[in-house]
Amino acid sequence: MDKRFSGKSVLVAGGTGGLGRAVSIAFLEEGAKVVVTYRNQKEWEDLKEIGDSNPSSLAGHRVDVTDEAEVEQFVQKIVAEYGHLDVMVNTVGAYAGGTKLWETDPKVFDQMLSLNLRSGFLLLRAVVPAMLKQKRGAIINISSRAAVDHAAGGAAYATAKAAAVAMIDSLAADLKGTGVRVNSILPSIIDTEANRKAMPNADFAQWPKAGDIARVILFLSSDEAQLIHGAAVPVYGNS
């Protein structure tokens, strides 16, 4: 049976984290050449072990995706090596909350904007021109339910995630008719080891699983989703 992404090159930014790892593995299983960015060496080593059955299909680079020069050089390197970049999934992000807006440290606010918004902006700024030259490509940016459901104590995070959805929405309008598609995914709390540790008394069964979200991302990245452009897709599970 042919695999959906055989011969395709896929960039998964943050591809070793809780959701990112599931996305990377899902693309590998579908025959893609997967390139991930990472910051945590152990996470990268763990992913390499999982992808060891076909190591030539997986590459990792330690990249600060909030640094303009690093991102530009990194994307140029991918395009030069593979000749094309078919899919980009941005799973980079971070959460900080539990404080009222007027009690939020400005440094925390800036961090939320940097990791949840600036990272995506710089990746898009580097990736979109390459895809426009190809006249094809699919981009998925991971936002959050918090982008539309603004709970107390999470103003900085919600602001960044809402802005990320607006950014993709506007970009979709810019890209109409070009062959490049962009969409957002809005997960609720994802069932990851880190989230379980952070909220040990929660009902984990209600949280969407990373592997299930990864399958949604694969669909949106595939030719089967050619009609979906500029969407913000909720993936809340039962939560």
Structure description:
The protein is an alpha/beta fold and 239 residues long. The chain has a single domain, classed as Rossmann fold (3-Layer(aba) Sandwich), CATH 3.40.50.720. The protein contains seven helices and seven strands; from the N terminus they run βαβαβαβαβαβααβ. β2, α2 (41-50) and β3 form a beta-alpha-beta unit. The chain is globular and about 50 Å long.
How would you summarize the topology of this molecule?
Layout: E1 9-13, H1 18-29, E2 33-38, H2 41-50, E3 58-62, H3 68-82, E4 87-90, H4 106-134, E5 137-142, H5 155-174, E6 180-187, H6 193-198, H7 210-221, E7 232-235
Parallel strand pairs: 1-2, 1-4, 2-3, 4-5, 5-6, 6-7
Helix pairs in contact: 1-7, 3-4, 4-5
Primary descriptors:
239 residues, alpha/beta, Rossmann fold, seven-stranded parallel beta sheet, 44% helix, 16% strand
* Oligomeric grouping of the chains: single chain
Number of domains: 1
How many E-type strands?
7
The CATH homologous superfamily is named: NAD(P)-binding Rossmann-like Domain
The proportion of residues in beta strands is 15-25%
Approximate shape:
globular
Report low-confidence residues grouped into runs of 5 or more. Answer: none
Q: What is the count of DSSP helices, taking H or I runs of 4+ residues?
A: 7
Main-sheet strand order equals: 3-2-1-4-5-6-7
Mean pLDDT metric: 92
What is the level 1 CATH name?
Alpha Beta
* Rg (C-alpha, Å): 17 Å
Q: Which structural category do the helix and sheet elements fall into? A: alpha/beta
- The CATH topology comes to Rossmann fold
* Annotated CATH architecture: 3-Layer(aba) Sandwich
Q: Main β-sheet: number of strands, strand sense, barrel status?
A: 7 strands, parallel
Helicity level: 40-55%
